[in-house]
Design a protein that fits this description.
heterodimer; A: about 575 residues; mainly alpha; five-stranded antiparallel sheet; 27 helices; B: about 500 residues; alpha+beta; 17 helices; about 50% helix; globular; disordered N terminus
């Protein structure tokens, strides 16, 4: 028996050719549907999966008729044994045309193609349909990469008709055999001549690579595919930049690197960007005869990083990356950010999910904000609540007076959560200007904002707010307020007014005579807390007198106030 | 159309599945079998038959054969060119097995065996007799009736289930060989044309067609994988077009051939081939008056010439149309004149470890450049001398393991070498001897007879063949310059 499994033969096993043709035509229609499904759906979609299953089923009857299916490719038709089995007249839709235009003239499918390769084949066709004109690939290059075992294709090389052919050299003039013989004889050596090579000249084991050598080669190949190619190329670019003093060469190298940075950012290669930034410094320090314009270009590279789109890409990639650069690399990247990056950084800080990236970026934002508060103020002009909160938080931490006017503006019109943050930030800044801006917040519509504000005034001893607070404490404004708000106002009042407030507060606490109308228990309790904040002997005396008040709320408040006062 | 059977679908699926899994089993099992044949041959050569190692090797050989015979009724091991097929499935060479395969291939050839059939039920004892006879017959001198004698001995030794047959070379095979040569030639022509187009486009500041470059390299890889002998012969071409173009293609072929020996995958061979084709692309930016200057270059001209590796990097950055930046090609363009210790050029400051692809390309480049006639090298060196120099001179700074792999590929007399034989015949080396032990006795094409008469296409002779007296029929006594005899080696490969 001779094995001819890989020979190309078609064996008709039925006489009914028409039925066979119908089966092939049916397969073509199923393949077309499959192509559409691949175009429209993802592999996990049921429609996609059904289409693939249908393709496999449609192959079964084909293999009843033939051991391989060879389709000739015409411009818009696929032809099987002389008959068109798929006709699509519109070229833009024609599968045959996609194959034909790139030079494919026949496709042969073998049993087993339906298992997996036919889907990859259709995917490649789909990919080829969408290739741009200037793409570096065509259908042939894509098919080659797939290395199909059960799908073969024949093609013609297009556009290579003019290639000159390799020909034998022209006939040499006949040389007399005797002359040739004489020449050969003259060449016969009397001793070992130059040019004769013997096995002894070589290592006897030359024909065999030993285990160690094979291991070495295997490691080398592994290293080849593990190396960071971009790093390698960047290393050579910086070597060249450092060593080549020709200004035109340096200009070209700088242009390459300049164009490389956005590309690297776009693909999220922050490691390489960090490397460029590091080597930039090295070149600036070490390169000889660097022209001023080249020096300027090198110094300007980091600014590219701070452009919103590039930086946004970088931060997004950093946050989503499975493998992160080292802290040093991140530090290197972020250290180079320019003030103009602050807005983008602050916009990204609330979105980052990776805590390490976030904390490093925050440190960078802190540095930039401290050095350039005017850029921070710009960030406070936006309306993104997340960004505003992040910025306000940073302001609170850094206590930056220059942004006070911007904060004041936010108190007037920002969302309540932002306003609460602004109160804290202004309180942290604590300058008279900040306190002045804060005054408006005493009238804020939000209870929490008011409470925070009045507490700031109390703790900061901002006496300019006393009038407003006095009015609230002595008037009707707090009548409907809850206990917490009332307490905050009374305590602030106590802190600001000092001993002069006792004539107002002691009667409110209700310790003078049994006939005087007492305030409600909440007001009395708040008055006790305010007296506690005053903390003088008179104040303590007043509290002691009320220590055994019948009302438990008042009694508790008095006790707490006394404890506080004693501290 | 026949009535579909109720279970036709399931039946067909299982047939298709079986075909695929059978092929995989044959490929893997066939590889095991060949490795076991090699191990048994080697241990039997070193130790007597009773030795425990020999016995264990025989056990494992018998088991490997039985494993295959459990799924196929019969095994056909066929030698075709440089490949071994097991039941029509070609075994793949890789780094782990190429030396073993090469040894088995040679042993079979030396015994005159082209096809070996093993029937189900082949016993361990039969394997023992067969391997012993194989060793004996492979060591014998070449004789026309060698295979017949072996067949007789097998019968006498009671070996009924292992049968050997002569090589099969049908008219169809010969026709295939001619077609293969033609395809290799066309691939070569196209690759030279594409290289020329790229280099000229760069010179003119135009964009080059990257698709064509890709196709060309893919074509070279296909040819190296399917048609190694033909494509290697084409590297003898030296003056088909401008040196730079032909040289780039030759370096690509040699590099991919080495890569194949090292067991690289098809896609890795493509990466290597692309890097090799572009290794000298920087020369497109070297002024033509320097590039084509006849005679020696002055210091300034050498300095310009030595810039071509890094000019290649700049050129590749500038090649428009690249979807992906060809980093690997840049690295090889940059490194191919660097020595292992990073001397050479260009100078390196930052830490660097040479890429293995750069080192492969450096070996291929050095060999092709030294054996070619160039503007500033009017007298090329003979291929064998170049190999010897590459092997022996560490100052060349090439990776010795890769040089060894290269010699492994070409033999010590590379294809195209013109030699004088002790028979007073003039010959061109046609290919390395398939028997590694005969590395200094290549296959040669005799083109001038002992009387000095030109023989046209001549004929191929194996210099390992012996005459009746047991001495070699022909031996090389000298490597010569083919120009002396008006011979152009590439004519015999085109």
């Amino acid at each position: 028996m001779r094995f001819v499994r890989d020979r190309s033969v078609t064996i008709p096993i039925t006489d009914d050719r028409l039925e066979a043709q119908a089966v092939v035509e049916s397969l073509m229609q199923v393949l077309l549907k499959g192509l559409r499904a691949i175009q429209l759906y993802l592999p996990n979609n049921p429609v996609y999966q059904r289409a693939v299953a249908n393709i496999r089923t449609a192959f079964e009857p084909v293999w009843e008729h033939t051991t391989e299916l060879t389709l000739q490719v015409a411009e818009t038709d696929l032809i099987w044994e002389g008959t068109a089995v798929l006709e699509q007249d519109t070229k833009s839709e024609s599968v045959a045309w996609i194959l034909f235009k790139d030079g494919i003239r026949a496709v042969t499918l073998l049993p087993g193609a339906e298992d997996e390769e036919i889907v990859r084949f259709l995917q490649v066709i789909q990919q080829a349909k969408t290739l741009e004109r200037e793409s570096t690939d065509d259908l042939l290059t894509l098919l080659w990469e797939q290395d199909f075992q059960t799908i073969r294709y024949d093609y013609v090389e297009l556009g290579m008709d003019e290639v000159p052919q390799l020909e034998r050299s022209e006939e040499q003039p006949e040389v007399k055999p005797a002359d040739v013989r004489q020449e050969v004889e003259e060449e016969q050596p009397t001793e070992t001549p130059k040019g004769i090579v013997t096995v002894d000249d070589f290592d006897a084991t030359l024909y065999f690579l030993d285990e160690e050598e094979i291991d070495y080669l295997r490691r080398e190949i592994e290293r080849e595919y593990k190396q960071d190619l971009k790093d390698n190329v960047l290393t050579m670019l910086f070597d060249l930049l450092e060593l080549q003093t020709y200004s035109t060469v340096r200009a070209e190298l700088l242009s390459i690197i300049e164009n490389f940075v956005p590309y690297l950012l776009a693909v999220g290669d922050f490691h390489s960007v960090a490397y460029i930034l590091k080597e930039n410094h090295v070149i600036l320090e070490r390169a000889r005869e660097l022209l001023p314009e080249h020096r300027q270009l090198l110094e300007d590279f980091p600014a590219k990083l701070s452009e919103p789109q590039s930086l946004g890409q970088l931060l997004q990639a950093l946050d989503e990356a499975a493998v992160h650069p080292t802290e040093d690399e991140l530090g290197e990247l972020f250290r180079e950010l320019r003030p103009s990056a602050l807005e983008t950084v602050l916009a990204w800080l609330p979105k980052l999910t990776n805590e390490r990236v976030r904390s490093l970026l925050y440190a960078s934002a802190r540095r930039l904000a401290q050095a350039h508060p005017e850029h921070l103020a710009k960030s406070l002009e936006g309306d993104d609540e997340g960004v505003l909160l992040e910025t306000v938080g940073l302001v609170k931490e850094l206590k930056l007076p220059p942004v006070v006017p911007a904060l004041g503006k936010l108190l007037a019109d920002a969302h309540v959560t932002v306003r609460r943050g602004v109160v804290d930030a202004l309180g942290a800044i604590g300058t008279p200007g900040a306190m002045k801006q804060l005054e408006q917040a005493l009238e804020d519509g939000d209870r929490d904002v008011r409470i925070a504000t009045v507490r700031v005034f109390g703790t900061q001893g901002y006496r300019q707010a006393l009038n407003g607070i006095t009015a609230a404490v002595t008037g009707r404004k707090l009548r409907d307020a809850d206990l917490t708000e009332k307490t905050a106002f009374f305590e602030a009042y106590g802190m600001l007014v000092g001993v002069q407030g006792l004539p107002t507060l002691i009667p409110m606490l209700g310790v003078r005579g049994v006939f005087r109308r007492k305030e409600d228990p909440e007001t009395r309790a708040c008055a006790a807390m305010a007296i506690g904040k005053i903390g003088t002997p008179e104040a303590r005396d007043a509290l002691e007198r009320a220590a055994k008040d019948k009302d438990p709320l008042v009694r508790n408040a008095v006790n707490r106030a006394m404890q506080e006062s004693a501290r | 159309m026949t009535e579909p059977r109720a279970s036709a679908g399931a039946g067909r699926r299982s047939i298709a599945d079986t075909m695929q899994s059978t092929e995989r089993v044959l490929r893997e099992g066939g590889r095991d079998l060949l490795v076991q044949v090699y191990a048994t041959l080697r241990s039997l050569k070193l130790y007597p038959i009773e030795n425990e190692q020999v016995q264990r090797a025989l056990d494992e050989l018998s088991a490997a054969a039985n494993a295959l015979l459990a799924i196929e009724d019969e095994l056909e091991i066929r030698v075709a060119g440089e490949f071994i097929f097991v039941n029509a499935t070609r075994l793949r060479l890789d780094l782990d097995n190429f030396a073993s395969f090469s040894h088995v291939l040679t042993t079979l050839r030396q015994s005159g065996i082209g096809v070996m059939r093993v029937d189900s039920g082949a016993e361990r004892r039969e394997w023992q007799v067969f391997i012993s006879l194989l060793l004996t017959f492979a060591a014998r001198e070449a004789a026309p009736n060698k295979l017949f004698e072996l067949q007789q001995k097998l019968v006498q030794g009671g070996v009924a289930r292992i049968v050997v047959e002569p090589p099969v070379e049908s008219d169809e095979d010969l026709e295939d060989e001619e077609k293969a040569k033609e395809v290799a030639k066309r691939t070569y022509e196209r690759t030279v044309a594409v290289t020329k187009e790229v280099v000229n486009s760069v010179r003119a500041g135009r964009s080059a067609s990257v698709k064509k470059v890709k196709r060309a390299v893919q074509g070279i890889v296909d040819q190296v994988l399917k048609n190694e002998v033909s494509v290697m012969g084409l590297t003898t071409i030296r003056d088909y077009d401008e040196y730079t173009f032909v040289h780039s293609v030759n370096v690509t072929i040699f590099s991919v051939l080495i890569g194949k020996r090292l067991g690289l995958t098809k896609l890795q061979l493509y990466d290597l081939g692309l890097a090799a084709l572009f290794h000298d692309v920087g020369k497109s930016r070297v002024p033509l008056e320097v590039l084509n200057k006849v005679g020696s270059l002055d210091d300034e001209e050498w300095r310009i010439m030595q810039a071509h590796p890094w000019l290649g990097v700049l050129t590749l950055f500038g090649l428009r149309g690249y979807g992906e930046i060809p980093y690997r090609s840049m690295i090889s363009a940059y490194e191919h004149h660097m020595k292992l210790d990073l001397t050479g050029y260009p100078k390196s400051i930052r830490p660097r470890e040479l890429s293995v692809y750069s080192k492969i390309i450096a070996v291929a480049d050095a060999f092709d450049a030294a054996t070619s006639r160039r503007a500033y090298q009017t007298q090329p060196l003979q291929p064998a001398e170049v190999l010897q120099e590459m092997w022996e001179n560490p100052r060349r700074g090439q990776d010795p393991v890769l040089v060894k792999a290269f010699i492994n590929l070409t033999g010590i007399y590379p294809v195209g070498t013109c030699v004088i034989l002790d028979s007073y015949e003039v010959a061109i080396v046609h290919g390395p001897n398939p028997d590694p032990a005969q590395m200094n006795r290549p296959l040669v094409r005799i083109v001038v007879d002992s009387e000095g008469l030109g023989l046209g296409d001549g004929f191929v002779a194996n210099l390992a063949d012996t005459n009746d007296g047991g001495t070699f029929a022909r031996s090389i006594i000298k490597v010569t310059d083919p120009d002396r005899y008006g011979i152009k080696p590439s004519d015999y490969f085109v």
